[in-house]
Design goal:
Layout: E1 8-9, E2 16-19, E3 22-30, E4 33-34, E5 41-44, E6 50-55, E7 59-68, E8 76-86, E9 93-99, E10 105-109, E11 112-116, E12 121-125, H1 129-138, H2 146-149, E13 155-158, E14 161-166, E15 174-184, H3 200-208
Antiparallel strand pairs: 1-5, 2-3, 3-4, 3-9, 5-6, 6-7, 7-8, 8-15, 9-14, 10-11, 11-12, 12-15, 13-14
Length: 209
């Protein structure tokens, strides 16, 4: 994602995004490896973003996260970009995002949800299976064989929780997944839904420049 030699190390802390309705917590599993909550290494970027890294014998996980400027007016958005680099075959790539204690959902997509109170609305979302298949066929972000392996049930949504259960990543390949967390005042228009539909390449450039 970025040359870490030019970055400053910072203290590792668990990956989350703090919103007006509470924290969005993330959990990752790569094959049989449940990735620890606290990263092994963390760097700060000039944009204010941070890069976290975890390593095992079979894979490396890099996560770039930070506040983006390229969102709808009046909406605050954090992006979390996951990249798996497989040293050996990784049997499954699973990412979970949960807004604990989220109020009743104000709207749903296949791969997103929103929660609203009198004070704020928060939306959390990422790519659906069909979008990932399109990227796979184009040779972008995910392996080309994912186009035939991704099923329609690749994304699970239960209340304030999303889970992406993605196919294997073969040795020497990489795979990306991205999650956006956006919030605003309840009566803001067009609202937070458009903000969770982000362009991962554009956001990565924004956070790493």
């Amino acid at each position: 994602m970025v040359d870490t030699e030019v970055l400053s190390r910072t203290d590792p802390r668990a990956l989350d995004v703090v919103t007006p309705l509470g924290g969005v917590q993330f959990a990752v599993r790569l094959g049989g490896w449940a990735v620890p909550a606290r990263p092994e290494l963390t760097w700060g970027l000039p944009s204010g973003a941070r890069l976290c890294r975890w390593r095992s014998e079979s894979a490396r996980l890099d996560v770039l996260s930070g506040r983006t400027a390229s969102g709808p007016s009046g909406v605050t958005r954090d992006a979390v970009l996951f990249r798996v680099l497989a040293r050996e075959d990784v049997g499954e790539f699973v990412v979970e995002a949960e807004l604990a204690g989220a109020p009743a959902s104000a709207g749903v997509w296949e791969s997103a949800f929103s929660a609203e109170t009198a004070d704020a609305v928060v939306s959390v979302g990422g790519p659906g299976a069909e979008l990932l298949r399109r990227y796979s066929r184009a040779g972008q972000h995910v392996p080309p064989y994912w186009s035939r392996l991704l099923g329609g049930d690749a994304v699970e949504r239960t209340g304030g929780r999303l889970a992406w259960r993605l196919p294997r990543v073969a040795r020497g390949d990489y795979a990306d997944l991205w999650v956006a967390v956006a919030w605003s005042e309840p009566d803001r228009h067009p609202g937070t839904w458009p903000a969770v539909d982000l362009d991962p390449a554009r956001v990565q450039r924004e956070l790493t420049q």
